[in-house]
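Side project, low priority. Logging it here so it doesn't get lost.
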Amino acid sequence: MSDLKQEDLNNHEQTFQERDQKFLDFEKPVQEVSEKISALKLADTGNPAIKSQIESLKKDREQLIKKIYSKLTTWETVQVARHPQRPHTLDFIKRIFKDFDELHGDRQFADDASIVGGLGYLNETPVMIIGHEKGRDTEEKVRRNFGMPQPEGYRKAKRLMKLAEQFSMPIITFIDTAGAYPGIEGEERGQSEAIAKNLALMSELKTPILVVVTGEGGSGGALAISVGDHLSMLEYGTYSVASPEACASIIWRSADEAEKAAESMKVTASELKKISIIDEIIQEPLGGAHRNYDLTSEIIKKSLVKNLSNLQKLSTEKLIERRYQRLLKIGT
Protein backbone atom coordinates (compact mmCIF):
# COMPACT_ATOMS: atom_id res chain seq x y z
CA MET A 1 0.00 0.00 0.00
CA SER A 2 0.99 3.64 -0.21
CA ASP A 3 3.24 4.86 2.57
CA LEU A 4 0.91 7.49 4.05
CA LYS A 5 0.54 6.87 7.77
CA GLN A 6 -2.81 5.62 9.08
CA GLU A 7 -3.03 8.46 11.60
CA ASP A 8 -2.86 10.94 8.71
CA LEU A 9 -5.93 9.29 7.22
CA ASN A 10 -7.83 9.28 10.50
CA ASN A 11 -6.94 12.80 11.62
CA HIS A 12 -7.61 14.57 8.33
CA GLU A 13 -10.95 16.39 8.49
CA GLN A 14 -13.57 14.96 6.15
CA THR A 15 -14.75 17.34 3.46
CA PHE A 16 -18.29 16.16 2.84
CA GLN A 17 -21.42 17.70 4.31
CA GLU A 18 -23.75 15.20 5.97
CA ARG A 19 -26.80 16.57 4.23
CA ASP A 20 -25.18 16.16 0.79
CA GLN A 21 -23.62 12.74 1.26
CA LYS A 22 -25.17 9.82 -0.64
CA PHE A 23 -25.13 6.56 1.28
CA LEU A 24 -24.97 3.05 -0.12
CA ASP A 25 -27.34 0.35 1.13
CA PHE A 26 -24.78 -1.22 3.45
CA GLU A 27 -24.06 2.21 4.98
CA LYS A 28 -27.51 2.64 6.53
CA PRO A 29 -26.19 2.70 10.13
CA VAL A 30 -23.78 5.49 9.13
CA GLN A 31 -26.60 7.38 7.45
CA GLU A 32 -28.74 7.23 10.58
CA VAL A 33 -25.95 8.69 12.73
CA SER A 34 -25.20 11.38 10.14
CA GLU A 35 -28.86 12.42 10.08
CA LYS A 36 -28.82 12.75 13.88
CA ILE A 37 -25.70 14.94 13.65
CA SER A 38 -27.35 17.14 11.03
CA ALA A 39 -30.49 17.54 13.15
CA LEU A 40 -28.45 18.48 16.23
CA LYS A 41 -26.44 21.03 14.24
CA LEU A 42 -29.67 22.72 13.15
CA ALA A 43 -30.83 22.85 16.77
CA ASP A 44 -27.47 24.01 18.13
CA THR A 45 -27.57 27.52 19.60
CA GLY A 46 -24.25 27.27 21.38
CA ASN A 47 -25.44 24.83 24.04
CA PRO A 48 -22.37 22.91 25.35
CA ALA A 49 -24.47 19.79 25.91
CA ILE A 50 -25.50 19.67 22.25
CA LYS A 51 -21.92 20.27 21.11
CA SER A 52 -20.77 17.40 23.31
CA GLN A 53 -23.46 15.14 21.89
CA ILE A 54 -22.45 16.03 18.33
CA GLU A 55 -18.81 15.19 19.03
CA SER A 56 -19.83 11.89 20.62
CA LEU A 57 -21.94 11.00 17.57
CA LYS A 58 -19.07 11.89 15.22
CA LYS A 59 -16.86 9.40 17.07
CA ASP A 60 -19.60 6.80 16.83
CA ARG A 61 -19.88 7.44 13.09
CA GLU A 62 -16.15 7.07 12.59
CA GLN A 63 -16.15 3.74 14.42
CA LEU A 64 -19.10 2.54 12.35
CA ILE A 65 -17.34 3.46 9.11
CA LYS A 66 -14.18 1.68 10.25
CA LYS A 67 -16.15 -1.44 11.14
CA ILE A 68 -18.13 -1.53 7.89
CA TYR A 69 -15.19 -0.80 5.58
CA SER A 70 -12.90 -3.29 7.32
CA LYS A 71 -14.99 -6.20 6.02
CA LEU A 72 -16.50 -5.15 2.69
CA THR A 73 -17.63 -7.96 0.41
CA THR A 74 -16.52 -7.92 -3.22
CA TRP A 75 -19.93 -6.68 -4.33
CA GLU A 76 -19.90 -3.90 -1.76
CA THR A 77 -16.48 -2.85 -3.09
CA VAL A 78 -17.97 -2.71 -6.59
CA GLN A 79 -20.66 -0.37 -5.25
CA VAL A 80 -18.03 1.90 -3.66
CA ALA A 81 -16.08 1.99 -6.95
CA ARG A 82 -19.29 3.14 -8.66
CA HIS A 83 -20.32 5.60 -5.96
CA PRO A 84 -22.03 8.60 -7.64
CA GLN A 85 -19.86 11.00 -5.62
CA ARG A 86 -16.56 9.23 -6.23
CA PRO A 87 -13.91 11.63 -7.59
CA HIS A 88 -13.31 11.55 -11.34
CA THR A 89 -10.33 12.35 -13.54
CA LEU A 90 -11.05 16.09 -13.69
CA ASP A 91 -11.29 16.21 -9.89
CA PHE A 92 -7.83 14.68 -9.63
CA ILE A 93 -6.35 16.88 -12.36
CA LYS A 94 -7.56 19.99 -10.52
CA ARG A 95 -5.92 18.89 -7.26
CA ILE A 96 -2.75 17.10 -8.37
CA PHE A 97 -1.43 18.99 -11.41
CA LYS A 98 -0.58 22.60 -12.22
CA ASP A 99 -1.36 24.57 -15.37
CA PHE A 100 -3.43 21.85 -17.04
CA ASP A 101 -4.16 22.62 -20.68
CA GLU A 102 -6.72 20.27 -22.23
CA LEU A 103 -6.22 19.07 -25.81
CA HIS A 104 -9.13 17.95 -27.98
CA GLY A 105 -9.95 15.76 -30.95
CA ASP A 106 -8.56 12.71 -32.72
CA ARG A 107 -7.90 14.57 -36.02
CA GLN A 108 -10.03 11.98 -37.80
CA PHE A 109 -13.65 12.14 -36.68
CA ALA A 110 -14.54 14.07 -33.52
CA ASP A 111 -13.66 14.98 -29.95
CA ASP A 112 -14.87 12.34 -27.49
CA ALA A 113 -15.63 14.01 -24.15
CA SER A 114 -15.51 10.67 -22.28
CA ILE A 115 -11.71 10.82 -22.60
CA VAL A 116 -9.99 13.95 -21.30
CA GLY A 117 -6.35 14.63 -21.92
CA GLY A 118 -3.80 17.37 -21.97
CA LEU A 119 -0.56 18.83 -20.66
CA GLY A 120 0.18 19.74 -17.07
CA TYR A 121 2.87 19.77 -14.40
CA LEU A 122 3.42 17.20 -11.68
CA ASN A 123 5.34 19.47 -9.35
CA GLU A 124 7.92 20.82 -11.83
CA THR A 125 7.78 17.92 -14.30
CA PRO A 126 5.74 18.39 -17.51
CA VAL A 127 3.50 15.37 -18.08
CA MET A 128 0.73 14.19 -20.41
CA ILE A 129 -2.45 13.36 -18.49
CA ILE A 130 -5.17 11.15 -20.00
CA GLY A 131 -8.23 9.67 -18.31
CA HIS A 132 -11.86 8.61 -18.46
CA GLU A 133 -14.45 11.18 -17.34
CA LYS A 134 -17.98 10.13 -16.40
CA GLY A 135 -19.46 13.54 -15.61
CA ARG A 136 -21.57 14.69 -12.68
CA ASP A 137 -25.08 15.94 -13.51
CA THR A 138 -27.35 14.29 -16.06
CA GLU A 139 -26.50 16.68 -18.89
CA GLU A 140 -22.76 16.20 -18.45
CA LYS A 141 -23.07 12.43 -18.09
CA VAL A 142 -24.90 12.27 -21.42
CA ARG A 143 -22.31 14.53 -23.07
CA ARG A 144 -19.51 12.35 -21.76
CA ASN A 145 -21.38 9.15 -22.58
CA PHE A 146 -21.16 8.03 -18.94
CA GLY A 147 -17.41 7.59 -19.32
CA MET A 148 -17.69 4.96 -22.08
CA PRO A 149 -15.41 6.06 -24.94
CA GLN A 150 -16.09 5.75 -28.64
CA PRO A 151 -13.19 4.88 -31.03
CA GLU A 152 -12.39 8.57 -31.46
CA GLY A 153 -11.74 8.78 -27.71
CA TYR A 154 -9.06 6.12 -27.92
CA ARG A 155 -7.63 7.68 -31.07
CA LYS A 156 -7.40 10.99 -29.22
CA ALA A 157 -5.55 9.21 -26.41
CA LYS A 158 -3.22 7.62 -28.96
CA ARG A 159 -2.48 11.01 -30.53
CA LEU A 160 -1.66 12.53 -27.16
CA MET A 161 0.56 9.61 -26.16
CA LYS A 162 2.58 9.92 -29.37
CA LEU A 163 2.91 13.65 -28.72
CA ALA A 164 4.20 12.92 -25.23
CA GLU A 165 6.77 10.49 -26.60
CA GLN A 166 7.92 13.05 -29.16
CA PHE A 167 8.74 15.53 -26.39
CA SER A 168 9.97 12.91 -23.86
CA MET A 169 7.11 13.63 -21.43
CA PRO A 170 5.92 10.96 -18.96
CA ILE A 171 2.33 9.79 -19.41
CA ILE A 172 -0.13 9.47 -16.52
CA THR A 173 -3.50 7.81 -17.11
CA PHE A 174 -6.57 7.60 -14.84
CA ILE A 175 -8.90 4.63 -15.32
CA ASP A 176 -12.60 4.86 -14.47
CA THR A 177 -14.99 3.31 -16.97
CA ALA A 178 -17.55 0.54 -17.14
CA GLY A 179 -16.07 -0.25 -20.55
CA ALA A 180 -15.83 1.01 -24.11
CA TYR A 181 -19.13 2.11 -25.67
CA PRO A 182 -20.82 -1.09 -26.97
CA GLY A 183 -23.14 0.54 -29.54
CA ILE A 184 -23.20 -0.10 -33.26
CA GLU A 185 -21.74 3.35 -34.03
CA GLY A 186 -18.56 2.43 -32.20
CA GLU A 187 -18.27 -0.84 -34.11
CA GLU A 188 -18.83 0.95 -37.40
CA ARG A 189 -15.95 3.31 -36.65
CA GLY A 190 -13.54 0.59 -35.57
CA GLN A 191 -13.80 0.24 -31.79
CA SER A 192 -11.79 -2.97 -31.53
CA GLU A 193 -9.09 -1.68 -33.87
CA ALA A 194 -8.75 1.57 -31.89
CA ILE A 195 -8.30 -0.36 -28.64
CA ALA A 196 -5.84 -2.83 -30.21
CA LYS A 197 -3.71 -0.05 -31.66
CA ASN A 198 -3.50 1.64 -28.27
CA LEU A 199 -2.35 -1.61 -26.67
CA ALA A 200 0.36 -2.02 -29.29
CA LEU A 201 1.45 1.61 -29.01
CA MET A 202 1.63 1.70 -25.21
CA SER A 203 3.69 -1.49 -25.10
CA GLU A 204 6.55 0.23 -26.97
CA LEU A 205 6.32 3.94 -26.10
CA LYS A 206 9.75 5.33 -25.23
CA THR A 207 8.60 7.29 -22.19
CA PRO A 208 7.46 6.32 -18.66
CA ILE A 209 3.77 5.43 -18.27
CA LEU A 210 2.02 5.54 -14.87
CA VAL A 211 -1.51 4.16 -14.58
CA VAL A 212 -3.97 4.74 -11.71
CA VAL A 213 -7.27 2.85 -11.48
CA THR A 214 -9.49 5.25 -9.53
CA GLY A 215 -12.95 3.70 -9.85
CA GLU A 216 -14.13 1.05 -12.27
CA GLY A 217 -11.63 -0.54 -14.61
CA GLY A 218 -13.90 -2.33 -17.01
CA SER A 219 -12.94 -4.50 -19.99
CA GLY A 220 -10.95 -3.34 -23.02
CA GLY A 221 -12.30 0.13 -22.43
CA ALA A 222 -9.98 0.36 -19.42
CA LEU A 223 -7.12 -1.67 -20.87
CA ALA A 224 -6.84 0.66 -23.88
CA ILE A 225 -5.13 3.30 -21.73
CA SER A 226 -3.72 1.13 -18.93
CA VAL A 227 -0.68 -0.64 -20.38
CA GLY A 228 2.20 0.91 -18.47
CA ASP A 229 5.29 0.65 -16.32
CA HIS A 230 3.52 0.97 -12.97
CA LEU A 231 -0.16 0.27 -12.35
CA SER A 232 -1.61 1.60 -9.08
CA MET A 233 -5.15 1.08 -7.88
CA LEU A 234 -7.21 2.86 -5.27
CA GLU A 235 -8.14 0.60 -2.39
CA TYR A 236 -11.84 0.40 -3.30
CA GLY A 237 -11.48 0.42 -7.08
CA THR A 238 -12.21 -2.56 -9.35
CA TYR A 239 -10.41 -3.85 -12.44
CA SER A 240 -11.68 -6.71 -14.57
CA VAL A 241 -12.06 -8.21 -18.02
CA ALA A 242 -15.79 -7.34 -18.01
CA SER A 243 -18.35 -5.81 -15.70
CA PRO A 244 -19.89 -8.25 -13.19
CA GLU A 245 -23.26 -7.80 -14.92
CA ALA A 246 -21.80 -8.66 -18.33
CA CYS A 247 -20.02 -11.70 -16.92
CA ALA A 248 -23.20 -12.89 -15.19
CA SER A 249 -25.18 -12.48 -18.41
CA ILE A 250 -22.66 -14.65 -20.25
CA ILE A 251 -22.14 -17.37 -17.63
CA TRP A 252 -25.53 -17.55 -15.91
CA ARG A 253 -27.65 -15.90 -18.59
CA SER A 254 -28.83 -13.37 -16.02
CA ALA A 255 -27.40 -10.05 -14.83
CA ASP A 256 -29.06 -10.78 -11.47
CA GLU A 257 -26.06 -13.01 -10.68
CA ALA A 258 -23.67 -10.04 -10.82
CA GLU A 259 -22.77 -10.37 -7.14
CA LYS A 260 -21.69 -13.97 -7.63
CA ALA A 261 -19.78 -13.01 -10.78
CA ALA A 262 -17.90 -10.22 -8.99
CA GLU A 263 -16.76 -12.65 -6.30
CA SER A 264 -15.60 -15.21 -8.87
CA MET A 265 -13.76 -12.67 -11.04
CA LYS A 266 -11.52 -11.38 -8.22
CA VAL A 267 -12.00 -7.73 -9.21
CA THR A 268 -10.69 -6.06 -6.03
CA ALA A 269 -7.29 -4.47 -5.51
CA SER A 270 -6.16 -7.00 -2.89
CA GLU A 271 -6.94 -9.96 -5.18
CA LEU A 272 -5.30 -8.35 -8.22
CA LYS A 273 -2.14 -7.52 -6.28
CA LYS A 274 -1.71 -11.21 -5.41
CA ILE A 275 -1.42 -12.18 -9.09
CA SER A 276 0.71 -9.18 -10.13
CA ILE A 277 -1.90 -7.52 -12.34
CA ILE A 278 -1.42 -4.35 -10.31
CA ASP A 279 1.77 -3.11 -8.66
CA GLU A 280 0.46 -0.96 -5.81
CA ILE A 281 -2.67 -0.45 -3.72
CA ILE A 282 -3.21 3.21 -2.86
CA GLN A 283 -4.93 3.58 0.50
CA GLU A 284 -8.13 5.65 0.57
CA PRO A 285 -9.39 7.96 3.32
CA LEU A 286 -11.68 6.46 5.93
CA GLY A 287 -14.91 5.44 4.21
CA GLY A 288 -13.64 5.82 0.64
CA ALA A 289 -12.33 8.45 -1.77
CA HIS A 290 -15.77 10.04 -2.18
CA ARG A 291 -15.58 11.33 1.40
CA ASN A 292 -12.42 13.35 0.88
CA TYR A 293 -11.25 14.42 -2.58
CA ASP A 294 -8.34 16.50 -1.30
CA LEU A 295 -6.76 13.80 0.82
CA THR A 296 -7.27 11.16 -1.87
CA SER A 297 -5.54 13.41 -4.40
CA GLU A 298 -2.69 14.05 -1.97
CA ILE A 299 -2.11 10.31 -1.52
CA ILE A 300 -2.21 9.67 -5.28
CA LYS A 301 0.21 12.53 -5.92
CA LYS A 302 2.74 11.09 -3.46
CA SER A 303 2.53 7.75 -5.24
CA LEU A 304 2.95 9.35 -8.68
CA VAL A 305 5.95 11.45 -7.65
CA LYS A 306 7.70 8.49 -6.02
CA ASN A 307 7.13 6.04 -8.87
CA LEU A 308 7.90 8.52 -11.62
CA SER A 309 11.21 9.35 -9.94
CA ASN A 310 12.09 5.62 -9.93
CA LEU A 311 11.15 5.14 -13.59
CA GLN A 312 13.09 8.20 -14.75
CA LYS A 313 16.31 6.61 -13.47
CA LEU A 314 16.00 3.88 -16.13
CA SER A 315 17.36 4.10 -19.67
CA THR A 316 14.83 3.85 -22.50
CA GLU A 317 15.96 0.31 -23.32
CA LYS A 318 15.63 -0.84 -19.71
CA LEU A 319 12.26 0.91 -19.38
CA ILE A 320 10.75 -0.97 -22.34
CA GLU A 321 12.31 -4.29 -21.30
CA ARG A 322 10.96 -3.82 -17.77
CA ARG A 323 7.49 -3.08 -19.17
CA TYR A 324 7.65 -6.26 -21.27
CA GLN A 325 8.75 -8.37 -18.30
CA ARG A 326 6.02 -6.86 -16.15
CA LEU A 327 3.40 -8.10 -18.60
CA LEU A 328 4.96 -11.55 -18.77
CA LYS A 329 4.85 -12.09 -14.99
CA ILE A 330 1.09 -11.45 -14.71
CA GLY A 331 -0.56 -14.48 -13.14
CA THR A 332 2.68 -16.24 -12.22
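Brief comment: The chain has two domains: 22-71, 78-328.
Revisit when time allows.
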